[in-house]
Amino acid sequence: MKKFLLFGCFLLVSCVTVRHIEITPIESGEDGEAPIRVESPVKAHLVDGSTVMFPKGLTVEDQKIRGQGFKYDITLENSEPVTEIALDNIAAMESYQDVVNTGATVAATTVTTVGGGLAGMALLKAVFGSCPTTYSLENGEPILEAESFSYSIAPGFEARDVDRLGIASVGQSAIELEMRNEALETHYINHLELLEVLHAEGESVYPDPEGRPVVVGEFRAPDVVVDRSGRRIEKIVGSADGNAWSTAAELLRNVSAEDMEDFVDLEFDMPASGEQLALVLRLRNSLLNTVLLYDVMLDGQGFRAIDWMGDDLDRLWPKFRLARWYQKKLGMRIAIWDRGRYRNVTTLADTGPIAWNEIAIPLPASKSDKVRVRLSFVADNWRIDQVALATNARAVQAKKIPVTQVHSSSGAELEQAKRNLHAADETYVVTRPGEYFRLHFDVGHAQDDLQRTWFLAAEGYYIEWMRKEWLKTTSTTAFVPNDDMLLDAIALWEPRRDEFRQRFESARIRVR
Question: CATH code for 205-396+479-506?
Fold first, then answer.
């Protein structure tokens, strides 16, 4: 009885403490097949916007799920017992265990957004995601600032992200941000804090690949930029204007198992001075990674994907195997020309397809009057908006500023949520589709002769909701990372890349 009460409370609120989570696989049998028993609690989101909780598990048989369940309406306030649901009535499903409610809520007034959205057929094919998106507010208008832990698709991949904010430093004594869940997924946010770096006017600050702040001086645009297809692209990547570079269509069409890479070569005329340099990039991923996650990893496994995300990826070997493959095949490799060859400097992890990411990669001091850099990656995995070489680069320490207040969409102050976000521990703020909360940071005033740059540091992970169309897949084989899977994703991506961004953005779940 106690277990049921805990899961019932979780349904009615959005902010919980998570002690441990296990995902149990659910498979849909065809008519006449032996029934499948699911022992763990399951939450089913229905096409009419209601939600059914099966605290003691369920059985899948004859295209129906059966069990002792409780059906909640769109407001999540009224419930009634239910023992059977047709699979055709299910929009998405989640299975999890052992959630402890703390009594906090982040979006009590927006719960109808979820039900109302799921009732619309367009949302059942939602492609927007994944990860929390964070906005600043300028004259009441939201400005997209960051997307956090984009590829933390399971508890075992919980990660910390550091993103540069574009908020002006003049006259600020407080900063307010809004963190949203705009996708069909559940977000588990462990820790949030603001980082502040003081610096002189004329300097800029960016995170390095490890999230550490780097102060840089003068910017120099590249003198020559050529991609693998031979195109001169200095004008495309010379300024931060949103007119981003992408892989040539012909190269993408001809990708093969033996050759699936593209590269961009940069050349800077730079008199040797012995000073520390940094390559500054403004970029984001294309939606190739979204196709890989949705159409190959998740849709390709069907119900088996639930167990893959929650169980397989919580074990050492499957997690290591996926991480090793992903690091080797995806991301961006940064190499500098040295003694007649390109020497690898670092590998930039994927940053996500939603917000532009600005980053500084420290480079060795140049011993020649030219600096040559190669960016290499899987074809069409990146959109590059700007590249520059910065002088006088140096690592610095940031001041950590904790969350001062957390408010729900109705304006109510959420003390429990603030405590949950205070440190990276076993307490989380959990949000569902359509929910958001506001963060307040007291930043005080800086010295008159110094500038301030802020970063948002966020740690957590998310769990995708298994969409109705994904549940129709009959495969029961877990995803195994290999080149064939990546080629499958590229083949699906290539014919629709020009229109997929618009569809992606239009599928964003409204939070107001």
Answer: 2.60.120.260
